[in-house]
């Protein structure tokens, strides 16, 4: 099958278009013919080698972390899907590879595609929506009336998180640039801070939850926005000891992550705030709940551009500019 892959880790290196063997199937797997694949900053970080300590992939590696397509085969133990089903998923982190014509995934990580979305729209959803769900529902347990700040509201995670937080009944603030103010307001943001003209740390206060996807400066300034007992959740790091333990990392990696996060954990504790790092995981059950929200009109996809399969490198480069509104998608079929 045709696929875009890396042969070695290299910052900003081009993906190689080549032939890969069909992925091997297990009894609990479904084989999916890929129609569309979402592009994420995570793809660039994996290519650059940023995660090689915690995600020891075998090279060559087919990239891609979001998929929508059609089931063509099911494993012997699979009962919930059949050939012909239209599905979407974020594959497990050790089985990525959606920049290709086919992928095999554990059926537990897969959900039926929302009936009201195209394949391209569906491929834009899984990773970002699951990130928002795991941060706001699972980790933060956001309740009606709570105040939530979502950084980078016009990005892939931000556009999903604003809509989900509003559905949960939260009062939502977000940061974005001047050009994207109307977009984030249309998604439900109650307060929009234009980071080009205002400092969110002086404008906002008394928040229960902050979801951070930006750098160290924004992460630390976010502490000033939170009230005692608040939760600071970061998807951009630094990873903490709890993350290391949950993933079964060895003693050395646990100590490295303890050291990397010691500063923000210490500053958070001083203010009575809980810091945690979130690295989202594949979950078909959660994705099915998100499907129900999409079909009910509660959440809608926000897409910037669709690239043809042969332009996968251009799609990745465009995502790396940081200017995309919502998601960038590759039309594979």
TrEMBL record:
Gene3D superfamilies: Medium-chain alcohol dehydrogenases, catalytic domain, NAD(P)-binding Rossmann-like Domain. Pfam families: ADH_N, ADH_zinc_N_2. InterPro entries: ADH-like_N, ER, GroES-like_sf, NAD(P)-bd_dom_sf, Quin_OxRdtase/zeta-crystal_CS, YIM1/Zinc_Alcohol_DH_Fams. Residues 13-330 form the Enoyl reductase (ER) domain. SMART domains: PKS_ER. Keywords: Oxidoreductase. This is NADPH:quinone reductase-like Zn-dependent oxidoreductase.
